[in-house]
Structure to design on (675 residues):
């Protein structure tokens, strides 16, 4: 589904990703771990099409199509969802309004019928229940004044509405206490299907106690330095990241 | 450069033969003042961002008598104000139209008297229409050229429930100079809401040179909204407010469209307990120039002022906000706050914002802030990553900025029209 080959990315004059390879198939959950500054966020941003990153070599294909030169909205329409580490607060833009625009843009692009306001509201209310988001947050401006937990839950809720084929969770556990973490993980687990793949980018192992990955990759110095199963995460938790590069 | 104005000033004199001596005298004085002070240029500090060459080069004419008034439908479609229960007062090319105005106006507690009627029946009251003359060229020009003037009086202790919609339209022959002049007297403890709207029905370079005077009597409450939103033409507006003991004035200025728009707002808090709230929104997406100069004079103790202006400038447009707050000597317990927040949507659009505080007393609390920003790139990416196309994402963010600016405006129809300007635009 997602194939990253020999990806080299620079920001300004600094090379951040230095020949990264990664293949994600449908239904798989991949955890990408690594120390600060190893390029984890760069990887999520580049996949999602954020400006300001230069792909100097290699390619990213999603469903057999290169997405390196695509716009962020085009990548979203093709079925990729990025849950942000720091979801933006957008005062003045209503949550439901934003999300309907997002879903209908996707549906327009896929030549599906757009949902009108009442159809959308009905659709959304079911999703809200299953994610356990406070329904009041729907009518508020996007993430504006939300607690850390509410913001992350809102990301997962948006994901449930947009129903992506590949979801990238960028440090979704950061800033969450243990209860909020459990809630968010539970929301994510509900969205796991045999068709949907996940990339979970995280510094710590604790999120992986609740979302069990099929693969754990260690990103170090712009490359995947080690790949293993869920036990690798536990080992990293015990031994830190230093030993990986020396391996 | 100024020949065009001199020509029209001369033209106007011949038409004034039937006027009473005092008025001829007023006009003559105004013309003399113009001749000695001249017209402003960018060399004048107050006008440095607003070149008027285009206006000076336009051969403006006096408006001629129309064969037909514009139809009610034309007026309705030209106006952005579409609220229920308005008292409509219409001025065509600066002249009060009794035919087009609501009959109900005459039945309400409001007293509406045009110049001619006052000269005939209440000559002393007529003089009041020309008693105030700010020392400024375009105000003199208005004094010299206003064909009509309208006195709107709200009797004491009366509340006018329905908002008064004062629609000023320019129409007919091309490239006119139109000089509406409105005097509003809110007597003691009265309350009224006035929506002043200026529209140009012709796609031309006419100049609407408007003068509005509002006297807020003791304990009165005046809500005033000023809207200039023509697709073309020049607009100079002078608004002068005097606020008496315990009176409040809220005044909003909305400006969008047009070629050059300059609005001078002067509010004088004359007596203790007087307060004012000024807010404004200017919006340019093409090549508009929109300039607001406001002055709030705290001339008495226990006076409060609050001012919030917002600008959104895209394309090649240029916005100016100059907010002066003057606190006179030997007064105390004065509070003033001013904010100017602006959004720039293109690399060539321009915003010039300047607070100007002149404070001559000690017991004063004054705060001011100014920001000029662009749309937040991270917010745009966030929305795009959800599948919202870039142009739509930008529009959402501009609308959000406007929404905040318009949140205090009680005119839903006007909000909708302003939002439409953004949603229709392809050039963010």
């Amino acid at each position: 589904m997602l194939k990253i080959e020999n990806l080299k990315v620079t920001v300004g004059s600094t090379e951040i990703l230095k020949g990264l390879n990664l293949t994600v198939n449908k239904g798989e959950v991949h955890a990408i771990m690594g120390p600060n500054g190893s390029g984890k966020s760069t990887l999520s941003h580049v996949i999602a099409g954020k400006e300001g990153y230069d792909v100097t070599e290699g390619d990213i294909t999603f469903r057999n199509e290169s997405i390196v030169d695509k716009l962020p909205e085009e990548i979203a329409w093709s079925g990729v969802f990025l849950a942000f580490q720091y979801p933006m607060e957008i005062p003045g833009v209503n949550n439901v309004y934003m999300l309907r625009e997002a879903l209908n843009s996707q549906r327009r692009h896929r030549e599906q019928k757009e949902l009108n306001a009442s159809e959308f509201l009905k659709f959304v209310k079911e999703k809200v229940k299953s994610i356990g988001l406070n329904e009041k947050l729907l009518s508020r401006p996007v993430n504006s004044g939300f607690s850390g937990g509410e913001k992350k839950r809102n990301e997962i809720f948006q994901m449930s509405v947009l129903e992506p084929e590949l979801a990238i969770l960028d440090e979704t556990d950061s800033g969450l206490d243990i209860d909020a973490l459990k809630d968010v993980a539970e929301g994510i687990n509900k969205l796991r299907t045999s068709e949907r793949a996940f990339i979970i980018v995280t510094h710590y192992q604790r999120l992986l106690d609740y979302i069990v990955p099929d693969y754990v990759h260690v990103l170090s110095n712009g490359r995947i330095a080690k790949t293993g199963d869920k036990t690798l995460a536990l080992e990293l938790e015990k031994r830190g990241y230093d030993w990986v590069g020396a391996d | 450069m100024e020949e065009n104005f001199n020509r029209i000033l001369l033209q106007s004199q011949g038409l004034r033969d039937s006027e009473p001596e005092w008025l001829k005298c007023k006009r003559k004085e105004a013309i003399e003042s113009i001749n000695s002070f001249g017209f402003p240029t960018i060399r004048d500090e107050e006008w440095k961002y607003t070149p008027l060459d285009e206006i000076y080069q336009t051969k403006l004419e006096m408006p001629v008598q129309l064969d037909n008034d514009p139809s009610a439908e034309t007026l309705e479609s030209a106006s952005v104000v579409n609220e229920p229960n308005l008292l409509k007062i219409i001025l065509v090319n600066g002249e009060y139209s009794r035919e087009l105005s609501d009959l109900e106006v005459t039945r309400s507690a409001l007293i509406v008297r045009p110049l001619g009627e006052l000269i005939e029946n209440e000559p002393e009251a007529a003089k009041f229409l020309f008693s105030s003359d700010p020392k400024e060229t375009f105000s003199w020009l208005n004094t010299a050229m206003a064909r009509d003037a309208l006195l709107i009086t709200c009797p004491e202790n009366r509340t006018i429930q329905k908002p008064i919609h004062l629609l000023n339209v320019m129409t007919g022959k091309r490239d006119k100079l139109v000089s509406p002049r409105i005097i509003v007297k809110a007597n003691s403890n009265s309350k009224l809401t006035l929506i002043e709207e200026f529209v140009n029905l012709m796609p031309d370079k006419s100049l609407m040179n408007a003068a509005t005077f509002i006297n807020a009597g003791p304990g009165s409450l005046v809500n005033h909204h000023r809207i200039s939103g023509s697709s073309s033409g020049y607009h100079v507006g002078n608004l002068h407010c005097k606020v008496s003991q315990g009176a409040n004035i809220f005044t909003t200025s909305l400006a969008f469209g047009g070629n050059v728009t300059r609005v001078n707002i002067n509010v004088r808090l004359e007596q203790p307990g007087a307060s004012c709230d000024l807010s404004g929104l200017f919006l340019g997406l093409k090549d508009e120039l929109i300039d607001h100069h406001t002055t709030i004079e705290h001339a008495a103790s226990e006076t409060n002022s609050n001012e919030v202006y917002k600008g959104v400038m895209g394309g090649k447009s240029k916005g100016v906000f100059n907010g002066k707050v003057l606190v006179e000597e030997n007064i105390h317990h004065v509070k003033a706050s001013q904010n100017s927040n602006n959004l720039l949507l293109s690399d060539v659009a321009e915003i010039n914002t300047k607070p100007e505080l002149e404070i001559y007393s000690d017991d004063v609390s004054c705060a001011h802030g100014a920001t000029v920003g662009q749309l937040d790139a991270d917010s745009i990416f966030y929305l795009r990553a959800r599948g919202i196309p870039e142009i739509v994402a930008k529009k959402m963010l501009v609308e959000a900025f406007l929404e905040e600016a318009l949140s205090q405006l009680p005119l839903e129809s006007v909000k909708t029209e302003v939002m439409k300007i953004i949603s229709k635009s392809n050039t963010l």
Remarks:
- Residues 376-428 of chain B form one domain.
- The longest strand of chain B covers residues 303-313.
- Chain B is about 25% helix and 40% strand.
- The mean pLDDT of chain B is 93.
